[in-house]
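Help! Submission page says 'invalid entity' but I think these are all valid:
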Amino acid sequence: MAVLVLADHDNASLRESTAKAVTAAVLLGGDVHILVAGLNCAPAADAAAKIDGVAKVLHAESPRYEHMLPEPLAVLISSLGPSYDALLAPSTTTGKNVMPRVAALLDVMQISDMMNVLAPDTFERPIYAGNVIETVRSRDAKKVITVRVTAFQAAGQGGQASVELLDAVDTPEISTFVSEELSRSERPELTSARIVLSGGRALQSRENFTKYIDPVAERLHAAVGASRAAVDAGYAPNDWQVGQTGKIVAPEIYIAVGISGAIQHLAGMKDSKVIVAINKDPDAPIFQVADYGLVADLYTALPELETELARIGI
Amino acid sequence: MKILVPIKRVVDFNAKVHVKADGTGVELSNLKMSINPFDEIAVEEAVRLKERGVATDVVCVSIGPAQSEDVIRTGLAMGATRGILVTFDGELEPLAVAKALKAVADDEKPDMIFLGKQAIDYDCDQTGQMLAALLGWPQGTFASKVEVDGSDVVVTREVDGGHQTVRLKLPAIVTADLRLNQPRYASLPNIMKAKRMPIDKKPIESLISDTAPRLEILKMAEPPHRKAGVKVASVAELVSKLRTEAGVL
Ligand SMILES: Cc1cc2nc3c(=O)[nH]c(=O)nc-3n(C[C@H](O)[C@H](O)[C@H](O)COP(=O)(O)OP(=O)(O)OC[C@H]3O[C@@H](n4cnc5c(N)ncnc54)[C@H](O)[C@@H]3O)c2cc1C
Protein backbone atom coordinates (compact mmCIF):
# COMPACT_ATOMS: atom_id res chain seq x y z
CA MET A 1 0.00 0.00 0.00
CA ALA A 2 1.25 3.47 -0.86
CA VAL A 3 -0.40 6.82 -0.29
CA LEU A 4 0.28 10.07 -2.13
CA VAL A 5 -0.34 13.42 -0.44
CA LEU A 6 -0.62 16.56 -2.53
CA ALA A 7 1.31 19.32 -0.77
CA ASP A 8 -0.30 22.70 -0.26
CA HIS A 9 2.40 25.34 -0.52
CA ASP A 10 3.31 28.71 -1.99
CA ASN A 11 6.58 27.45 -3.54
CA ALA A 12 8.68 29.15 -0.86
CA SER A 13 7.12 27.32 2.05
CA LEU A 14 4.86 24.46 2.93
CA ARG A 15 1.45 25.10 4.51
CA GLU A 16 0.77 23.38 7.81
CA SER A 17 -2.28 21.70 6.31
CA THR A 18 0.13 19.39 4.45
CA ALA A 19 1.51 17.91 7.68
CA LYS A 20 -2.06 17.38 8.89
CA ALA A 21 -2.97 15.50 5.73
CA VAL A 22 0.15 13.37 6.28
CA THR A 23 -1.23 12.30 9.67
CA ALA A 24 -4.38 11.09 7.92
CA ALA A 25 -2.29 9.36 5.25
CA VAL A 26 -0.27 7.51 7.89
CA LEU A 27 -3.52 6.18 9.37
CA LEU A 28 -4.33 4.59 6.01
CA GLY A 29 -1.14 2.55 6.31
CA GLY A 30 1.73 1.95 3.91
CA ASP A 31 4.37 4.26 2.47
CA VAL A 32 3.48 7.93 2.42
CA HIS A 33 4.81 10.07 -0.42
CA ILE A 34 4.29 13.80 -0.88
CA LEU A 35 3.95 15.51 -4.23
CA VAL A 36 5.28 19.06 -4.31
CA ALA A 37 4.48 20.58 -7.68
CA GLY A 38 5.34 24.19 -8.37
CA LEU A 39 7.95 26.56 -9.67
CA ASN A 40 11.13 27.12 -7.68
CA CYS A 41 9.47 25.08 -4.99
CA ALA A 42 12.60 23.32 -3.71
CA PRO A 43 12.19 24.99 -0.27
CA ALA A 44 8.69 23.52 0.00
CA ALA A 45 9.95 20.13 -1.16
CA ASP A 46 12.74 20.22 1.43
CA ALA A 47 10.22 21.10 4.14
CA ALA A 48 8.03 18.20 3.03
CA ALA A 49 10.99 15.81 3.35
CA LYS A 50 11.29 16.71 7.02
CA ILE A 51 7.74 15.69 7.93
CA ASP A 52 7.64 12.58 10.12
CA GLY A 53 6.28 9.51 8.40
CA VAL A 54 7.07 10.59 4.85
CA ALA A 55 9.08 8.06 2.84
CA LYS A 56 9.60 10.05 -0.33
CA VAL A 57 8.98 13.49 -1.80
CA LEU A 58 8.18 13.87 -5.48
CA HIS A 59 9.27 17.29 -6.65
CA ALA A 60 7.85 18.52 -9.97
CA GLU A 61 9.10 21.82 -11.39
CA SER A 62 7.31 23.67 -14.14
CA PRO A 63 5.93 27.14 -14.82
CA ARG A 64 2.63 25.31 -15.38
CA TYR A 65 2.52 24.30 -11.73
CA GLU A 66 3.53 27.65 -10.24
CA HIS A 67 -0.01 28.55 -9.16
CA MET A 68 -1.25 25.00 -8.79
CA LEU A 69 -3.84 25.40 -11.53
CA PRO A 70 -6.04 22.31 -11.52
CA GLU A 71 -5.96 21.56 -15.24
CA PRO A 72 -2.25 20.66 -15.52
CA LEU A 73 -1.96 19.50 -11.92
CA ALA A 74 -4.79 16.97 -12.11
CA VAL A 75 -3.18 15.41 -15.18
CA LEU A 76 0.14 15.12 -13.36
CA ILE A 77 -1.43 13.59 -10.26
CA SER A 78 -3.63 11.16 -12.15
CA SER A 79 -0.58 10.02 -14.14
CA LEU A 80 0.89 8.93 -10.80
CA GLY A 81 -2.35 7.16 -9.90
CA PRO A 82 -1.28 3.64 -10.89
CA SER A 83 1.44 3.62 -8.22
CA TYR A 84 -0.87 4.54 -5.35
CA ASP A 85 -3.76 3.03 -3.45
CA ALA A 86 -4.89 6.38 -2.12
CA LEU A 87 -4.42 10.02 -3.11
CA LEU A 88 -4.99 12.68 -0.47
CA ALA A 89 -4.94 16.43 -0.21
CA PRO A 90 -5.79 18.77 2.62
CA SER A 91 -9.25 20.22 2.23
CA THR A 92 -7.97 23.71 1.45
CA THR A 93 -9.20 25.69 -1.54
CA THR A 94 -6.35 24.14 -3.56
CA GLY A 95 -7.16 20.58 -2.52
CA LYS A 96 -10.87 21.12 -3.10
CA ASN A 97 -10.17 22.55 -6.53
CA VAL A 98 -7.78 19.88 -7.76
CA MET A 99 -8.76 16.55 -6.19
CA PRO A 100 -12.26 16.05 -7.64
CA ARG A 101 -10.71 16.62 -11.05
CA VAL A 102 -8.17 13.91 -10.27
CA ALA A 103 -10.91 11.61 -8.99
CA ALA A 104 -12.92 11.95 -12.19
CA LEU A 105 -9.84 11.28 -14.34
CA LEU A 106 -9.28 8.10 -12.32
CA ASP A 107 -13.01 7.23 -12.28
CA VAL A 108 -13.13 7.34 -8.49
CA MET A 109 -15.79 8.83 -6.22
CA GLN A 110 -13.98 11.22 -3.91
CA ILE A 111 -14.42 11.27 -0.15
CA SER A 112 -14.63 14.98 0.69
CA ASP A 113 -13.59 16.47 4.00
CA MET A 114 -12.70 13.16 5.57
CA MET A 115 -12.53 13.56 9.35
CA ASN A 116 -11.83 10.06 10.65
CA VAL A 117 -10.20 6.91 9.29
CA LEU A 118 -12.01 3.82 10.59
CA ALA A 119 -10.34 1.40 8.17
CA PRO A 120 -8.33 1.91 4.97
CA ASP A 121 -11.63 1.89 3.06
CA THR A 122 -13.99 3.27 5.72
CA PHE A 123 -14.24 6.89 6.73
CA GLU A 124 -16.33 9.47 8.51
CA ARG A 125 -17.25 12.78 6.94
CA PRO A 126 -19.60 15.63 7.83
CA ILE A 127 -22.73 16.35 5.81
CA TYR A 128 -25.58 18.85 6.23
CA ALA A 129 -23.29 21.56 7.60
CA GLY A 130 -21.79 19.13 10.10
CA ASN A 131 -25.19 18.29 11.61
CA VAL A 132 -24.80 14.71 10.46
CA ILE A 133 -21.71 12.52 10.29
CA GLU A 134 -21.83 9.78 7.68
CA THR A 135 -19.71 6.66 7.74
CA VAL A 136 -18.90 5.49 4.23
CA ARG A 137 -17.07 2.52 2.83
CA SER A 138 -15.50 3.11 -0.54
CA ARG A 139 -15.94 0.39 -3.12
CA ASP A 140 -13.42 2.02 -5.43
CA ALA A 141 -10.10 0.18 -5.68
CA LYS A 142 -8.31 3.48 -5.35
CA LYS A 143 -9.28 6.19 -2.88
CA VAL A 144 -9.27 9.92 -3.53
CA ILE A 145 -9.71 11.90 -0.34
CA THR A 146 -9.67 15.49 0.85
CA VAL A 147 -8.80 15.75 4.52
CA ARG A 148 -10.55 18.03 7.00
CA VAL A 149 -7.45 19.54 8.55
CA THR A 150 -8.99 20.48 11.89
CA ALA A 151 -9.62 16.78 12.53
CA PHE A 152 -5.93 15.77 12.45
CA GLN A 153 -2.86 16.93 14.34
CA ALA A 154 0.08 17.98 12.21
CA ALA A 155 2.69 15.25 11.81
CA GLY A 156 5.96 16.07 13.57
CA GLN A 157 9.25 17.26 12.13
CA GLY A 158 12.35 15.14 12.04
CA GLY A 159 11.85 13.01 8.96
CA GLN A 160 14.53 12.56 6.33
CA ALA A 161 12.72 11.55 3.20
CA SER A 162 14.48 11.41 -0.13
CA VAL A 163 13.49 13.98 -2.73
CA GLU A 164 13.01 12.71 -6.26
CA LEU A 165 12.61 15.00 -9.27
CA LEU A 166 9.59 14.38 -11.40
CA ASP A 167 9.04 15.48 -15.00
CA ALA A 168 6.12 17.72 -15.81
CA VAL A 169 3.40 16.18 -17.96
CA ASP A 170 2.49 18.03 -21.15
CA THR A 171 -1.06 19.37 -21.21
CA PRO A 172 -2.88 21.82 -23.47
CA GLU A 173 -2.90 25.37 -22.07
CA ILE A 174 -6.57 25.92 -21.47
CA SER A 175 -6.12 28.02 -18.34
CA THR A 176 -3.71 30.74 -17.28
CA PHE A 177 -3.05 32.54 -14.05
CA VAL A 178 -3.78 36.27 -14.20
CA SER A 179 -3.29 37.67 -10.71
CA GLU A 180 -3.58 37.11 -7.05
CA GLU A 181 -4.67 39.37 -4.24
CA LEU A 182 -3.66 37.88 -0.95
CA SER A 183 -4.67 39.65 2.19
CA ARG A 184 -1.64 40.53 4.26
CA SER A 185 -2.10 40.30 7.94
CA GLU A 186 0.15 40.26 10.94
CA ARG A 187 -2.39 38.07 12.64
CA PRO A 188 -1.83 34.31 12.89
CA GLU A 189 -3.38 32.12 10.22
CA LEU A 190 -7.05 31.43 10.90
CA THR A 191 -7.06 27.66 10.58
CA SER A 192 -4.03 27.06 12.78
CA ALA A 193 -4.36 29.81 15.41
CA ARG A 194 -4.72 28.86 19.08
CA ILE A 195 -7.28 31.61 19.59
CA VAL A 196 -9.79 32.93 17.06
CA LEU A 197 -11.77 36.11 17.59
CA SER A 198 -14.64 36.49 15.13
CA GLY A 199 -16.94 39.40 14.48
CA GLY A 200 -20.41 39.38 12.96
CA ARG A 201 -22.87 41.72 11.38
CA ALA A 202 -23.10 43.65 14.65
CA LEU A 203 -19.68 45.18 13.97
CA GLN A 204 -21.35 47.41 11.38
CA SER A 205 -18.22 48.48 9.50
CA ARG A 206 -14.68 47.63 8.57
CA GLU A 207 -13.49 50.49 10.77
CA ASN A 208 -15.17 48.90 13.76
CA PHE A 209 -13.34 45.64 13.11
CA THR A 210 -10.13 47.62 13.29
CA LYS A 211 -11.21 49.68 16.26
CA TYR A 212 -12.85 47.02 18.43
CA ILE A 213 -11.67 43.57 17.30
CA ASP A 214 -8.03 44.26 16.45
CA PRO A 215 -6.80 45.49 19.87
CA VAL A 216 -8.20 42.43 21.62
CA ALA A 217 -6.90 40.10 18.92
CA GLU A 218 -3.51 41.73 19.30
CA ARG A 219 -3.39 41.01 23.03
CA LEU A 220 -4.53 37.44 22.61
CA HIS A 221 -2.35 36.75 19.55
CA ALA A 222 -5.60 35.65 18.01
CA ALA A 223 -6.53 35.20 14.38
CA VAL A 224 -9.52 37.23 13.27
CA GLY A 225 -12.55 35.59 11.70
CA ALA A 226 -15.96 36.77 10.58
CA SER A 227 -19.46 35.60 9.83
CA ARG A 228 -20.78 35.51 6.31
CA ALA A 229 -22.98 38.52 7.04
CA ALA A 230 -19.91 40.56 8.03
CA VAL A 231 -18.02 39.46 4.91
CA ASP A 232 -20.96 40.04 2.56
CA ALA A 233 -21.36 43.54 3.96
CA GLY A 234 -17.69 44.26 3.29
CA TYR A 235 -16.67 44.60 6.94
CA ALA A 236 -14.14 41.78 6.61
CA PRO A 237 -12.30 40.11 3.71
CA ASN A 238 -13.70 36.89 2.24
CA ASP A 239 -10.89 34.72 3.55
CA TRP A 240 -11.94 35.47 7.11
CA GLN A 241 -15.30 33.76 6.73
CA VAL A 242 -15.80 30.91 9.17
CA GLY A 243 -18.50 28.35 8.44
CA GLN A 244 -19.98 25.63 6.29
CA THR A 245 -18.83 27.38 3.16
CA GLY A 246 -15.91 29.29 4.59
CA LYS A 247 -13.06 28.11 6.79
CA ILE A 248 -13.32 25.34 9.33
CA VAL A 249 -11.53 26.17 12.56
CA ALA A 250 -11.05 24.34 15.84
CA PRO A 251 -8.92 26.56 18.07
CA GLU A 252 -8.53 26.28 21.82
CA ILE A 253 -10.65 29.39 22.26
CA TYR A 254 -13.20 30.68 19.79
CA ILE A 255 -14.72 34.04 20.66
CA ALA A 256 -17.83 34.98 18.70
CA VAL A 257 -18.71 38.64 18.98
CA GLY A 258 -22.01 39.93 17.61
CA ILE A 259 -22.64 36.66 15.79
CA SER A 260 -26.08 35.06 16.11
CA GLY A 261 -24.96 31.45 15.66
CA ALA A 262 -26.65 30.28 12.44
CA ILE A 263 -26.03 26.59 11.71
CA GLN A 264 -23.87 27.55 8.74
CA HIS A 265 -21.60 29.50 11.07
CA LEU A 266 -21.58 26.82 13.78
CA ALA A 267 -20.49 24.30 11.14
CA GLY A 268 -17.17 26.09 10.95
CA MET A 269 -16.36 26.45 14.64
CA LYS A 270 -18.28 24.09 16.86
CA ASP A 271 -15.33 21.74 17.29
CA SER A 272 -13.41 24.49 19.07
CA LYS A 273 -12.26 23.52 22.56
CA VAL A 274 -13.78 26.46 24.40
CA ILE A 275 -16.41 28.72 22.86
CA VAL A 276 -17.05 32.20 24.17
CA ALA A 277 -19.98 34.28 22.95
CA ILE A 278 -20.54 37.98 23.41
CA ASN A 279 -23.97 39.04 22.23
CA LYS A 280 -26.51 41.53 23.46
CA ASP A 281 -29.41 39.20 22.77
CA PRO A 282 -29.71 36.66 25.64
CA ASP A 283 -31.63 34.32 23.32
CA ALA A 284 -29.08 34.31 20.51
CA PRO A 285 -28.56 30.68 19.37
CA ILE A 286 -24.80 31.07 19.76
CA PHE A 287 -25.29 30.80 23.54
CA GLN A 288 -26.56 27.23 23.06
CA VAL A 289 -23.06 26.12 22.08
CA ALA A 290 -21.02 28.59 24.12
CA ASP A 291 -19.14 27.43 27.21
CA TYR A 292 -19.06 31.01 28.42
CA GLY A 293 -21.67 33.54 27.39
CA LEU A 294 -21.63 37.22 28.11
CA VAL A 295 -24.82 39.13 27.40
CA ALA A 296 -23.47 42.56 26.63
CA ASP A 297 -23.09 45.26 24.06
CA LEU A 298 -19.88 44.53 22.20
CA TYR A 299 -19.04 48.20 21.98
CA THR A 300 -18.55 48.32 25.72
CA ALA A 301 -17.53 44.68 26.30
CA LEU A 302 -14.60 44.62 23.84
CA PRO A 303 -12.84 47.73 25.19
CA GLU A 304 -13.39 46.36 28.69
CA LEU A 305 -11.93 43.04 27.65
CA GLU A 306 -8.87 44.75 26.24
CA THR A 307 -8.37 46.69 29.46
CA GLU A 308 -8.87 43.59 31.59
CA LEU A 309 -6.34 41.60 29.54
CA ALA A 310 -3.87 44.46 29.86
CA ARG A 311 -4.46 44.65 33.57
CA ILE A 312 -3.53 41.00 34.11
CA GLY A 313 -0.54 41.30 31.83
CA ILE A 314 -1.76 39.51 28.69
CA MET B 1 -23.69 31.80 -26.34
CA LYS B 2 -25.39 29.03 -24.44
CA ILE B 3 -25.00 28.47 -20.70
CA LEU B 4 -26.02 25.24 -19.04
CA VAL B 5 -26.87 25.50 -15.34
CA PRO B 6 -27.20 22.23 -13.43
CA ILE B 7 -29.28 22.68 -10.28
CA LYS B 8 -30.11 20.46 -7.35
CA ARG B 9 -33.17 20.24 -5.13
CA VAL B 10 -32.01 20.13 -1.51
CA VAL B 11 -33.32 20.61 2.00
CA ASP B 12 -33.89 24.32 2.56
CA PHE B 13 -30.93 25.96 4.32
CA ASN B 14 -33.19 26.99 7.21
CA ALA B 15 -34.48 23.48 7.90
CA LYS B 16 -33.05 21.45 10.73
CA VAL B 17 -32.29 17.89 9.67
CA HIS B 18 -32.35 14.84 11.90
CA VAL B 19 -30.98 11.37 11.43
CA LYS B 20 -33.54 8.56 11.19
CA ALA B 21 -33.78 6.49 14.34
CA ASP B 22 -32.14 3.49 12.66
CA GLY B 23 -29.19 5.56 11.43
CA THR B 24 -29.75 4.67 7.77
CA GLY B 25 -30.30 8.18 6.56
CA VAL B 26 -31.72 11.60 7.17
CA GLU B 27 -35.41 12.22 7.84
CA LEU B 28 -36.48 14.38 4.92
CA SER B 29 -40.25 13.98 4.88
CA ASN B 30 -42.03 17.18 5.90
CA LEU B 31 -38.92 19.30 5.43
CA LYS B 32 -39.05 22.23 3.05
CA MET B 33 -37.05 21.61 -0.13
CA SER B 34 -35.53 24.38 -2.24
CA ILE B 35 -33.05 25.06 -4.97
CA ASN B 36 -29.50 24.67 -3.62
CA PRO B 37 -28.50 28.26 -2.71
CA PHE B 38 -25.24 28.12 -4.66
CA ASP B 39 -27.10 26.88 -7.74
CA GLU B 40 -29.47 29.81 -7.43
CA ILE B 41 -26.44 32.10 -7.58
CA ALA B 42 -25.26 30.22 -10.68
CA VAL B 43 -28.65 30.72 -12.36
CA GLU B 44 -28.60 34.42 -11.47
CA GLU B 45 -25.17 34.87 -13.03
CA ALA B 46 -26.20 33.13 -16.24
CA VAL B 47 -29.41 35.18 -16.46
CA ARG B 48 -27.43 38.40 -15.96
CA LEU B 49 -25.17 37.42 -18.85
CA LYS B 50 -28.27 36.86 -20.94
CA GLU B 51 -29.67 40.24 -19.96
CA ARG B 52 -26.38 41.88 -20.93
CA GLY B 53 -26.61 40.22 -24.33
CA VAL B 54 -23.59 37.99 -23.74
CA ALA B 55 -25.64 34.78 -23.53
CA THR B 56 -28.69 33.91 -25.56
CA ASP B 57 -29.72 30.63 -24.02
CA VAL B 58 -29.75 29.64 -20.34
CA VAL B 59 -30.68 25.99 -19.89
CA CYS B 60 -31.41 24.67 -16.40
CA VAL B 61 -30.95 20.96 -15.88
CA SER B 62 -31.77 19.03 -12.75
CA ILE B 63 -31.24 15.37 -11.98
CA GLY B 64 -33.58 13.90 -9.43
CA PRO B 65 -37.12 12.83 -8.66
CA ALA B 66 -40.18 14.30 -10.38
CA GLN B 67 -40.37 17.06 -7.73
CA SER B 68 -37.08 18.47 -9.00
CA GLU B 69 -39.25 20.10 -11.63
CA ASP B 70 -39.95 22.73 -8.93
CA VAL B 71 -36.35 23.96 -8.82
CA ILE B 72 -36.19 24.04 -12.61
CA ARG B 73 -39.26 26.28 -12.54
CA THR B 74 -37.50 28.46 -9.96
CA GLY B 75 -34.71 28.87 -12.50
CA LEU B 76 -37.15 29.55 -15.34
CA ALA B 77 -38.94 32.18 -13.25
CA MET B 78 -35.58 33.88 -12.68
CA GLY B 79 -35.07 34.12 -16.42
CA ALA B 80 -33.66 30.82 -17.70
CA THR B 81 -34.88 29.98 -21.19
CA ARG B 82 -35.31 26.22 -21.04
CA GLY B 83 -35.47 23.33 -18.58
CA ILE B 84 -34.38 19.70 -18.68
CA LEU B 85 -35.32 17.19 -16.00
CA VAL B 86 -33.28 14.02 -15.85
CA THR B 87 -35.38 11.69 -13.76
CA PHE B 88 -33.79 9.53 -11.11
CA ASP B 89 -35.15 8.39 -7.79
CA GLY B 90 -32.62 8.11 -5.02
CA GLU B 91 -29.24 9.59 -4.25
CA LEU B 92 -26.85 9.95 -7.13
CA GLU B 93 -23.20 10.58 -6.29
CA PRO B 94 -21.30 13.53 -7.77
CA LEU B 95 -19.27 11.26 -10.06
CA ALA B 96 -22.44 9.82 -11.61
CA VAL B 97 -24.02 13.28 -11.74
CA ALA B 98 -20.95 14.56 -13.58
CA LYS B 99 -21.17 11.68 -16.07
CA ALA B 100 -24.85 12.35 -16.70
CA LEU B 101 -24.16 16.07 -17.10
CA LYS B 102 -21.39 15.29 -19.54
CA ALA B 103 -23.93 13.42 -21.66
CA VAL B 104 -26.27 16.43 -21.47
CA ALA B 105 -23.40 18.75 -22.42
CA ASP B 106 -22.39 16.54 -25.37
CA ASP B 107 -25.95 16.93 -26.58
CA GLU B 108 -26.52 20.62 -25.76
CA LYS B 109 -23.02 21.87 -26.60
CA PRO B 110 -23.02 24.83 -24.20
CA ASP B 111 -20.17 27.38 -24.16
CA MET B 112 -20.18 27.51 -20.39
CA ILE B 113 -21.57 25.47 -17.55
CA PHE B 114 -22.30 27.30 -14.29
CA LEU B 115 -22.76 25.21 -11.16
CA GLY B 116 -22.96 25.94 -7.45
CA LYS B 117 -19.67 25.25 -5.70
CA GLN B 118 -21.31 22.74 -3.37
CA ALA B 119 -24.70 21.34 -2.51
CA ILE B 120 -25.63 22.10 1.07
CA ASP B 121 -26.88 18.56 1.76
CA TYR B 122 -23.82 16.40 1.12
CA ASP B 123 -21.32 19.29 1.08
CA CYS B 124 -19.13 17.42 -1.43
CA ASP B 125 -17.84 20.30 -3.56
CA GLN B 126 -16.99 17.97 -6.45
CA THR B 127 -19.46 17.99 -9.32
CA GLY B 128 -18.15 21.00 -11.24
CA GLN B 129 -14.54 19.89 -11.04
CA MET B 130 -15.45 16.33 -12.07
CA LEU B 131 -17.52 17.54 -14.99
CA ALA B 132 -14.63 19.77 -16.10
CA ALA B 133 -12.30 16.76 -16.01
CA LEU B 134 -14.67 14.54 -18.00
CA LEU B 135 -15.17 17.24 -20.65
CA GLY B 136 -11.49 18.24 -20.66
CA TRP B 137 -12.54 21.85 -19.98
CA PRO B 138 -10.88 24.38 -17.70
CA GLN B 139 -12.57 25.25 -14.41
CA GLY B 140 -13.02 28.43 -12.41
CA THR B 141 -14.21 27.23 -9.03
CA PHE B 142 -15.47 29.32 -6.06
CA ALA B 143 -16.11 32.26 -8.39
CA SER B 144 -16.82 35.71 -7.02
CA LYS B 145 -16.58 37.44 -10.41
CA VAL B 146 -17.09 36.22 -13.97
CA GLU B 147 -16.30 38.20 -17.10
CA VAL B 148 -16.55 36.89 -20.62
CA ASP B 149 -13.77 38.28 -22.80
CA GLY B 150 -14.00 37.12 -26.42
CA SER B 151 -13.27 33.41 -26.49
CA ASP B 152 -12.14 33.40 -22.85
CA VAL B 153 -13.76 33.81 -19.50
CA VAL B 154 -11.92 35.59 -16.70
CA VAL B 155 -12.86 34.26 -13.29
CA THR B 156 -11.96 35.69 -9.88
CA ARG B 157 -11.94 32.95 -7.27
CA GLU B 158 -12.25 33.03 -3.49
CA VAL B 159 -9.20 31.19 -2.16
CA ASP B 160 -7.85 30.58 1.34
CA GLY B 161 -5.55 33.58 1.29
CA GLY B 162 -7.78 36.03 -0.60
CA HIS B 163 -8.58 36.11 -4.31
CA GLN B 164 -7.08 34.56 -7.41
CA THR B 165 -7.95 35.48 -10.98
CA VAL B 166 -7.62 33.01 -13.86
CA ARG B 167 -8.29 33.20 -17.58
CA LEU B 168 -10.00 30.16 -19.07
CA LYS B 169 -10.48 29.22 -22.71
CA LEU B 170 -14.11 28.58 -23.60
CA PRO B 171 -15.86 26.23 -23.25
CA ALA B 172 -15.38 26.34 -19.50
CA ILE B 173 -16.87 25.41 -16.15
CA VAL B 174 -17.57 27.97 -13.45
CA THR B 175 -18.68 27.15 -9.91
CA ALA B 176 -20.39 29.90 -7.94
CA ASP B 177 -19.38 31.08 -4.49
CA LEU B 178 -21.60 33.11 -2.17
CA ARG B 179 -20.45 36.52 -3.21
CA LEU B 180 -20.78 36.15 -6.97
CA ASN B 181 -24.13 37.94 -6.83
CA GLN B 182 -27.33 38.36 -4.88
CA PRO B 183 -30.03 36.30 -6.62
CA ARG B 184 -33.22 38.14 -7.49
CA TYR B 185 -36.70 37.33 -6.30
CA ALA B 186 -38.71 36.20 -9.29
CA SER B 187 -41.74 38.37 -9.99
CA LEU B 188 -45.21 36.88 -9.79
CA PRO B 189 -45.87 37.20 -13.55
CA ASN B 190 -42.56 35.44 -14.23
CA ILE B 191 -43.43 32.69 -11.77
CA MET B 192 -46.77 32.20 -13.53
CA LYS B 193 -45.10 32.21 -16.93
CA ALA B 194 -42.51 29.68 -15.75
CA LYS B 195 -45.31 27.32 -14.70
CA ARG B 196 -46.42 26.99 -18.29
CA MET B 197 -43.01 26.57 -19.89
CA PRO B 198 -42.33 23.06 -21.19
CA ILE B 199 -39.63 21.00 -19.50
CA ASP B 200 -37.82 18.27 -21.39
CA LYS B 201 -37.85 15.03 -19.46
CA LYS B 202 -35.52 12.12 -19.91
CA PRO B 203 -34.76 9.14 -17.75
CA ILE B 204 -31.22 8.86 -16.44
CA GLU B 205 -30.80 5.53 -18.26
CA SER B 206 -30.90 7.42 -21.54
CA LEU B 207 -27.69 9.19 -20.45
CA ILE B 208 -25.66 6.79 -18.33
CA SER B 209 -25.95 3.10 -17.59
CA ASP B 210 -24.13 2.94 -14.27
CA THR B 211 -25.82 4.71 -11.37
CA ALA B 212 -24.58 2.39 -8.61
CA PRO B 213 -23.04 4.24 -5.67
CA ARG B 214 -19.32 3.81 -5.11
CA LEU B 215 -19.60 4.82 -1.48
CA GLU B 216 -21.63 2.52 0.70
CA ILE B 217 -23.25 4.46 3.51
CA LEU B 218 -22.74 2.35 6.61
CA LYS B 219 -24.21 4.74 9.09
CA MET B 220 -25.44 8.24 9.72
CA ALA B 221 -25.30 9.80 13.14
CA GLU B 222 -25.59 13.18 14.76
CA PRO B 223 -22.35 14.46 16.24
CA PRO B 224 -22.17 14.86 20.01
CA HIS B 225 -24.13 17.96 20.91
CA ARG B 226 -22.34 20.74 22.69
CA LYS B 227 -24.08 21.76 25.83
CA ALA B 228 -24.70 25.37 26.66
CA GLY B 229 -22.29 26.43 29.36
CA VAL B 230 -22.67 29.25 31.81
CA LYS B 231 -23.48 32.91 31.45
CA VAL B 232 -20.96 35.18 33.04
CA ALA B 233 -21.94 38.50 34.53
CA SER B 234 -18.97 40.60 33.50
CA VAL B 235 -15.86 40.80 31.39
CA ALA B 236 -13.73 40.31 34.49
CA GLU B 237 -15.56 37.11 35.36
CA LEU B 238 -15.16 35.89 31.78
CA VAL B 239 -11.41 36.41 31.84
CA SER B 240 -11.03 34.85 35.25
CA LYS B 241 -13.05 31.77 34.21
CA LEU B 242 -10.99 31.38 31.05
CA ARG B 243 -7.84 31.45 33.16
CA THR B 244 -8.73 29.37 36.17
CA GLU B 245 -11.62 27.14 35.13
CA ALA B 246 -10.90 26.51 31.45
CA GLY B 247 -7.16 27.02 31.81
CA VAL B 248 -6.88 28.39 28.30
CA LEU B 249 -5.62 31.91 28.92
C1 LIG C 1 -25.69 28.59 1.48
C2 LIG C 1 -25.34 29.37 2.70
C3 LIG C 1 -24.06 29.29 3.20
C4 LIG C 1 -23.71 30.01 4.32
N1 LIG C 1 -22.43 29.91 4.79
C5 LIG C 1 -22.09 30.60 5.89
C6 LIG C 1 -20.76 30.51 6.44
O1 LIG C 1 -19.89 29.78 5.92
N2 LIG C 1 -20.47 31.22 7.53
C7 LIG C 1 -21.39 32.06 8.16
O2 LIG C 1 -21.05 32.71 9.16
N3 LIG C 1 -22.63 32.15 7.66
C8 LIG C 1 -23.00 31.46 6.54
N4 LIG C 1 -24.26 31.62 6.05
C9 LIG C 1 -25.12 32.69 6.60
C10 LIG C 1 -25.82 32.33 7.89
O3 LIG C 1 -27.01 31.66 7.60
C11 LIG C 1 -26.14 33.63 8.68
O4 LIG C 1 -26.91 34.47 7.86
C12 LIG C 1 -24.90 34.40 9.13
O5 LIG C 1 -24.01 33.54 9.78
C13 LIG C 1 -25.33 35.54 10.05
O6 LIG C 1 -24.22 36.32 10.42
P1 LIG C 1 -24.21 37.12 11.79
O7 LIG C 1 -24.38 36.17 12.91
O8 LIG C 1 -23.01 37.98 11.79
O9 LIG C 1 -25.46 38.10 11.62
P2 LIG C 1 -26.85 38.11 12.36
O10 LIG C 1 -27.52 36.80 12.26
O11 LIG C 1 -27.55 39.31 11.87
O12 LIG C 1 -26.47 38.29 13.88
C14 LIG C 1 -25.98 39.45 14.44
C15 LIG C 1 -25.93 39.22 15.93
O13 LIG C 1 -25.31 40.34 16.55
C16 LIG C 1 -26.00 40.64 17.76
N5 LIG C 1 -25.77 42.06 18.05
C17 LIG C 1 -26.22 43.15 17.39
N6 LIG C 1 -25.73 44.28 17.91
C18 LIG C 1 -24.91 43.91 18.92
C19 LIG C 1 -24.09 44.63 19.82
N7 LIG C 1 -24.02 45.97 19.78
N8 LIG C 1 -23.40 43.95 20.74
C20 LIG C 1 -23.47 42.59 20.79
N9 LIG C 1 -24.22 41.85 19.95
C21 LIG C 1 -24.93 42.51 19.02
C22 LIG C 1 -27.43 40.30 17.49
O14 LIG C 1 -28.09 40.01 18.70
C23 LIG C 1 -27.30 39.07 16.59
O15 LIG C 1 -27.31 37.89 17.36
C24 LIG C 1 -24.64 30.86 4.94
C25 LIG C 1 -25.94 30.93 4.46
C26 LIG C 1 -26.30 30.19 3.34
C27 LIG C 1 -27.69 30.28 2.84
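Support: the input was valid. A stray whitespace character was the problem, and the output above is from the cleaned input. The mean pLDDT of chain A is 97.
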